Structures are given as structure tokens and as C-alpha cells.
Amino acid sequence: MTEQPKEPQLPVEKSQPGARTPLIERLHRAFGPLVGGMILDLVDLSSFGPFGIGGFFVGGLTGWWICSIYNIATSTRLTLALLAGIYCLFPLTEFIPVATLLSAFIRFRGIGDSKTME
Fold first, then answer.
1. Which residues are within 8 A (CB) of 75 and not within 5 positions of it... i.e. 6 or more apart?
2. 110 in helix, strand or coil?
3. Which residues contact 59 (CB under 8 A, 6 or more apart)?
4. pTM for the full predicted model
5. Rg (CA), the chain
6. CA-to-CA distance for 58 and 47, rounded, in angstroms?
7. Fewer beta carbons within 10 Å, N or C terminal of the chain?
8. Other CB atoms within 10 Å distance of the CB of residue 14
9. Which of 41-50, 97-106, 107-116 has the highest mean pLDDT?
10. What's the mean pLDDT when you consider all of the chain?
11. Maximum C-alpha span of the chain
């Protein structure tokens, strides 16, 4: 009897039907953008709004950090960090979770999501 060569086993890709993604990846995909918005809203709540320019710098740094988690390009990261700083500087945004609501809306619509919703 001659042995036939075995076919190499291909790794299962996440895009194949029936492939399951790990729980931590699914949680990150579902709640990651919301957590970024919540962090920015908490920084906005803790900043002093228009009374202190520190809100702009702390909000900008927080926006830069959140963008770095998602590996966003540097030019876009700078723009989003400036917007985060301006958001934390605006008066009367402390008690309205705009960043959380915006990130939830973007996640709901699937904007920027290359995968289809499962």
C-alpha cells in the first residue's frame, strides 16, 4: 500500500461561513466605539468647559489617544483630536453625551465597517 500525501490543512479564516470570532473581538467590535465616546464624554464632564483652556488640551490628548487605539492615520488623528478638544471646550456639553450618542449612531449605521453585520 502506498500512502497518499495528505492535503495541507488551511487555517480557518474569519470571513468563511461558519467561522466564529472570539468573544473578546466581538465585544470590541460591538462596544469599542461606544467606550471611546464614553471616555471623551467623561473627560468633557470633568473639564471646566469654557472657564479653563485645559479642557481643550485634555480633550485633544484624549481624542489623540482614542484614535491611536484604532490605528487611524496621523492626519485624520490630528483632525479628530482637534475636534475632541473643541468639543471639551464648548459650553453646556458636559451633561449631553454627544460623543457617546454619535459613536452609537455610527456603529448602528455601520459606517466605516468593512464587514457585514452578523
1. none
2. coil
3. 40, 43, 44, 47, 84, 85, 86, 87, 88, 89
4. 0.64
5. 21
6. 8
7. N
8. 10
9. 97-106
10. 75
11. 86
